[in-house]
User: Which sequence fits this backbone?
DNA sequence: ATCTTACAATGGACATTGTCTAAGTCAAGC
DNA sequence: GCTTGACTTAGACAATGTCCATTGTAAGAT
């Protein structure tokens, strides 16, 4: 267990049983869970936790910069605990598995001024899609 | 009007009044409409057209490679008639406006083998986000 | 021109994901 | 141990999209 709970408490986050279990669910493996998956895992330990609370808590953690929202498909948003190192995503077109990746280079420098249309660009998001070894082997 | 309808007919697409108006709606300006916006514009000319038909027709046009689906936010998918020249998107973080952009370079070459995890990568999608001149001026 | 038939359109129910609200509950400070 | 404002809850609601059974029709065959 990392110091996520400590950091949150230090920021004046009111600590409730619900928030604790949500934070602990995310503070494990670097997988990319949906809100409902987080809710299911949280409910194993705190059966009465409501969906709304999970949604609220996830939204707060995103605002606090402790986790990232990832939308790689039209389905549910996923939550990425790896918020402290910039990265992009590699998604399996078959099974939807997501890996964090760290490309070299900066896509921003690939966009000439003439293609910026006066926008003040603040962020670039890159999603690689392909078939993972698991799905390809089948 | 381009030759979109001709191309579709040539591919054996059964031409109905509904499909014609949907194709014609898309065959105009290179804007990025949602399915419901397409439905609204189509209904101006064919008031009885149903939502399901618009969804079906858009899905078919995507399968045929005549238009592209774009998902730049968590809201509705948008449809991009500019399917014949590869491009990426620049999205206004305030108003959601979308522009097609053509970055130089190839993001694929920025992803070393060690970061591919055995995936057979087939596609890269780049989304630039920022504030458009309109929203910045306000 | 009419018939035939497979393919398309329709409307409405349903599914998924997420948001909102009013009322009850509780963590943390006094 | 109170008090209080923040938190949680259940369920209604919203937005987008999909599915299905029924009805309609485009286009080839006669």
Assistant:
């Amino acid at each position: 267990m990392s110091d996520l709970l400590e950091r949150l408490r230090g920021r004046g986050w009111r600590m409730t049983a619900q928030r604790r279990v949500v934070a602990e669910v995310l503070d494990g493996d670097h997988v990319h869970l949906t809100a409902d998956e987080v809710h299911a895992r949280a409910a194993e330990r705190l059966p009465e936790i409501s969906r709304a609370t999970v949604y609220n808590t996830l939204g707060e953690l995103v605002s606090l910069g402790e986790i990232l929202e990832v939308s790689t498909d039209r389905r549910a948003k996923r939550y990425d605990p790896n918020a402290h190192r910039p990265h992009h995503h590699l998604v399996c077109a078959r099974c939807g598995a997501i890996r964090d990746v760290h490309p070299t280079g900066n896509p921003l420098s690939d966009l000439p001024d003439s293609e910026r249309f006066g926008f003040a660009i603040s962020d670039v998001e890159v999603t690689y899609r392909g078939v993972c070894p698991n799905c390809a082997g089948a």
Observations:
- Residues 14, 16, 18-19, 48-53, 56-57, 74 of chain B lie near DNA strand C (CB under 10 Å from a C1').
- The helical segments of chain B are 4-10, 17-26, 35-45, 51-63, 133-137.
- Residues 25 and 70 of chain B are 17 Å apart (CA to CA).
